[in-house]
Design goal:
Layout (H helix, E strand, L loop, with lengths): L2 E2 L2 E2 L3 H5 L4 E7 L10 H8 L8 E7 L7 H10 L4 E5 L1 H10 L5 E6 L18 E5 L2 H15 L5 E6 L6 H15 L2 E6 L6 H10 L5 E3 L3 H5 L1 H11 L3 E3 L2 H5 L4 E5 L5 H12 L15 E6 H7 L5 H6 L2 E3 L1
Parallel strand pairs: 3-4, 3-5, 5-6, 6-7, 8-9, 8-10, 10-11, 11-12, 13-14
Antiparallel strand pairs: 1-2, 12-13
Helix pairs in contact: 2-11, 3-4, 5-6, 7-9
Length: 316
């Protein structure tokens, strides 16, 4: 090979060869083609094209969260440059599998409570991303449910026992219920197949309303929950606006479930040399109250005028 001034002259083709970005994605949900994932679409907008300058390794729990630890170990064994987690369970599984590879979470409930960091502003481990602040909003959801049912004294709380935040969420619900004078009936749900049984239990307990926890399992079966609530004439508080647009009575929570655009930007910065500590956890600033008057009429519910004025979206 020719030498000039002590410098090795490399072939132009080698100099032009782009570095391959290796990205691993773990999803707490059903498997879909990687090309259909919103995070992959957002990364493509930033120039990361699968098969050209980017390779993806993708795993999904197939609605079985207990599989996440093994899937996380499989992903980390492939040694990607950056890992992406969709949801709190996926984030915890990846964090338990590696403390070296940077992890970006598209949505996480409470990273401090989960042990993923001790600081929101300056992440202290190898995880950062976008939160939904579900713990801080739980009490407010129950309060709003009580506002439309001032005589409410007994309600069901649908939660996911396998969630890493299950106990913390339960504590918040019990604290809020005690203040409001409401007796809560805790009903664990791990999959859509258990929804019918959950409502049978709720009916046997003679509850008068339902509070839904913020969790991927619940979000996936929200339409079924809304249908059962109509059948059993039970007012229900959900988390996301999309659930109310699909027939649920009301919701209070972040306007979007995941922040794929923001997560893609973080992945891009990490691949270009940024450090996790430089990328703060971002909390949602757009918290919306959404109500569905059509569903309310079916349930015989009248929203207080002040709530309708306050609502960010009223579905007729």
């Amino acid at each position: 090979m020719a030498m000039l001034g002590g410098v090795v002259m490399m072939p132009l083709a080698a100099l032009a060869q782009p570095q391959l970005a290796r990205i691993g994605i773990l999803r707490d949900g059903r498997a879909v083609p990687a090309a259909d994932l919103p995070i992959v679409h957002e990364l493509a907008r930033l120039g990361y094209v699968d098969g050209r300058n980017t390779s993806y390794a993708f795993r999904a729990s197939e609605d079985s969260p207990s599989r996440l630890p093994q899937l996380a170990r499989e992903l980390t064994a492939e040694k990607p440059d950056v890992l992406v987690a969709e949801g709190s369970p996926a984030a915890v599984a990846l964090f338990n599998a590696t403390h070296e590879i940077p992890i970006v979470v598209t949505v996480v409930a409470d990273p401090i409570a989960l042990g993923l960091t001790t600081s929101m502003a300056h992440p202290t481990h190898n995880v950062t991303g976008f939160t939904q602040s579900s713990l801080s909003l739980t009490a407010k959801r129950l309060q709003l449910l009580h506002d439309i049912l001032p005589s409410l004294r007994k309600a069901a709380y649908f939660w996911v026992p396998e969630s890493p935040l299950a106990q913390a969420r339960m504590d918040r619900v019990e604290q809020a219920a005690k203040v409001l004078g409401i007796s809560m009936v805790s009903i664990g749900v791990t999959s859509g197949a258990e929804i019918d049984g959950a409502f049978v239990d709720a009916e046997q307990e003679q509850v008068k309303a339902v509070l839904i926890e913020s969790d991927p399992v619940m979000q996936r079966v929200s339409s079924s929950i809304a249908d059962r609530c109509l059948f059993y004439s039970l007012p229900c508080m959900h988390v996301y606006p999309s659930e109310v647009r699909n027939g649920a009575l009301m919701s209070y929570g972040p306007a979007t479930i995941e922040n794929n655009s923001g997560a893609a930007g973080y992945v891009d910065r990490l691949l270009k040399g940024a450090k996790i500590a430089e990328l703060p956890f971002v909390e949602p600033t757009d918290i919306k109250l959404v109500v569905n008057l059509r569903t309310a009429r079916s349930l015989g519910i009248k929203f207080p005028p002040a709530m309708l004025i306050r609502a960010d979206e009223v579905i007729e």
